[in-house]
Amino acid sequence: MSKKKKVVLAYSGGLDTSVIIPWLEENHGLEVHAFAGDVGQGASELEGLEDKAAATGAASCKVADLREEFLTDCVWPCLRALAVYEGRYLLGTSMARPVLAKGQVDYAKQIGAHYLAHGCTGKGNDQVRFELAYQALAPEMGIIAPWRDWHIKSREDAIDYAAEKGIPITASKEKIWSRDRNLWHISHEGGALEDPGAAPPEEVFMLTVDPRQAPDQPLELTLGFTAGVPTALNGEALPPEQLLARLNELGGQHGVGRVDITENRLVGMKSRGVYETPGGTIVYEALRTLRALTLERDTMRLCEKLMPDYCDLVYTGRWFHPMRRAMDALFADATQHVTGEVRVRLYKGSATAIAAESPFSLYSEDLATFGKSAAFEHKDSYGFVKLYGLPGAVAQRVQGGAS
Predict the structure, then answer these.
(1) pTM for the model
(2) Helix axes 240-253, 278-294, angle to 10 degrees
(3) What is the predicted pLDDT for the residue at 43?
(4) Is 260 a catalytic residue?
(5) What would the pLDDT profile of 295-319 be if each residue is shown by its tens digit?
(6) Catalytic residue among 16, 94, 181, 258
């Protein structure tokens, strides 16, 4: 029986976490256990992960299916808030970290571990996301972040270390892409993408075709929503994982969901990333239209005001913060009637909502028509306009002002 203290490493089988396993043993004398969460990264990344971890010295490797939990507990709350970071990023990586960290902590408690470890660099956002989750869920456990301590300073150094230790890896010094994939998206960073002045090489993209090569005929589909979350595609009710997988497939075929953004990281620097979120882009477009149909004006404006704050909580790793839970409750209540169907047209990289219906629609044709209306008296607007402009009129009369 080993008397070594145990550490559970957030494990992906990629370059960084592969070299961390022997490093933890050599430099900390710990018994290393690996934890990998399946959030939809695909069989190619998960197949044989246990054997790979064992081959590099791990005492165990647990792969947990977190796909449904990821969507229902993390993605859907962000969706109800229509959370978008800096106007473009649909938070694919940010949303996955809480469920991965929670799964890692659960496994660490199960095996009696003393430490939690991750392979995030000191330059990135993920170190904060994982560690704030650890602090909230397992404050009694120590945290080890090798990238802040070891002699390795770059991915090239990590590749050399892997070669020295005989660790099989897929990264190379010619194609050093840092990728993160789940059910919602795939992100690409590093390599040629570190030059914002250069267009992304087409070989970077994995989920979407070049919009210029997409079909010449548009595709129309119908998304069904219940209380602000998607539940059906073309009239067929589907589990969350199947629905999003199908949307990713359809959106990818039409080049939908590509984003090239230079974003502001939490640590202060700007970082260039390329994201593919075909299914998520379709869902956001449809939901935005359905919300406009079903949300009362002041509630809708409140949601729009609060969205950046909610988005910031998610992006900066404060998922388990009381403020995020409180805001979740507000968005869930505000979207309780966001139910209905939206027809979306996919064409050459775009997803455009073209029609929407809801049993809770607040649209009244009788009120909105330019024709004769039985429910609206035009003369009522006289007093309304006069009183609405009264504060400005008084200020202008008394104080004057620029024209």
Answers:
(1) 0.92
(2) 110
(3) 86
(4) no
(5) 999 999 999 999 999 999 999 999 9
(6) 16
Q: Is the pLDDT of residue 7 over 90?
A: yes
37 closest CA partner among 71, 88, 80: 71
Q: What is the pLDDT of residue 164?
A: 83
Report the percent of the chain where pLDDT is more than 90: 79
- Tens digit of pLDDT for each residue in 335-348? 999 999 999 999 99
Structure tokens at 376: 């609206």
- Return d(Cα 173, Cα 206) in angstroms, integer: 20
Nearest to 59 by CA among 36, 35, 32, 37: 32
Is the CATH number of domain 180-357 3.90.1260.10? Answer: yes
Are 76 and 243 in contact by the 8 Å Cβ rule? The answer is: no
Which residue ranges does the chain devote to CATH 3.90.1260.10?
180-357
Catalytic site residue from 12, 18, 94, 178:
178
For residues 316 and 128, the answer to whether their CB atoms sit within 8 Å is yes
Choosing from 67, 80, 97, 181, the catalytic residue is 97
Tell me, yes or no, if 178 is annotated catalytic: yes
Enter the CATH code of domain 6-175: 3.40.50.620
Place of tokens 């559970």: 8
Task: Please answer whether residues 291 and 338 qualify as being in contact, where contact means their C-beta atoms are separated by less than 8 angstroms.
Answer: yes
